[in-house]
Amino acid sequence: MDEVQALNAFASLSQETRLRIVRRLVIAGPDGLSAGAIGKAMDDASSSRMSFHLSHLEHAGLVKSRREGRSIIYSAAFPALSGLVEFLMRDCCQGHPDVCNPAVAALSSCCKPAQGAVRVLRQSNLRASAT
Q1: Please, how many CA atoms are within 13 Å of residue 103, restricted to the half-sphere of its CB?
Q2: What is the pLDDT of residue 97?
Q3: How many CB atoms lie within 10 A of CB 18?
Q4: What ranges do the domains of the chain cover?
Q5: H or E, element range at 50
Q6: Are 32 and 75 in contact (CB under 8 A)?
Q7: pTM (predicted TM-score)
Q8: With 0-12 CB in 10 A as exposed, 13-18 as middle and 19+ as buried, what is 78?
Q9: CATH number for domain 3-79, candidates 1.10.10.10, 3.40.50.720, 2.40.50.140, 3.40.630.10
Q10: CB distance 42 to 17 below 8 Å
C-alpha cells in the first residue's frame, strides 16, 4: 500500500458509520453480509444511507461486493486492511524491535497466524533488528 492509498483508506475510516461497517464485516469474515443485514446492524439505517457508505468504502478498496441472486453481499477486503496495518508498522522498529512488540503481541493474541506467516514475521523481525 502506498501513501495515497493509505490516505484514502484513513479518510474513509474516519467516519463513525463507515468504521462500524468495516468492523462488522471483519467479524463476518470472508462470507460477508448482505447490504440489508449491514443496515440492520447499523441501527436500521436506510438503504440509501448504507449504499452511500458502502460505496465510499468500496471506492477506498476496504470492502468488496458481489451479487448473490437478488442480494449484494459485502465483505471486508482483508488484503487491503492488512496492507493498511503493514503501511503503519513498516518503519516502526528502526533497529529497535521492542517498539513493535506490543503491536505484534496484540495481533498474536487475537488470531493465530499460519505456520508460514510466523516464519515470515520472524524473518522480518530478524532483518529489522540487524539494521
Answers
A1: 14
A2: 75
A3: 21
A4: 3-79, 92-130
A5: helix 47-59
A6: yes
A7: 0.76
A8: middle
A9: 1.10.10.10
A10: yes
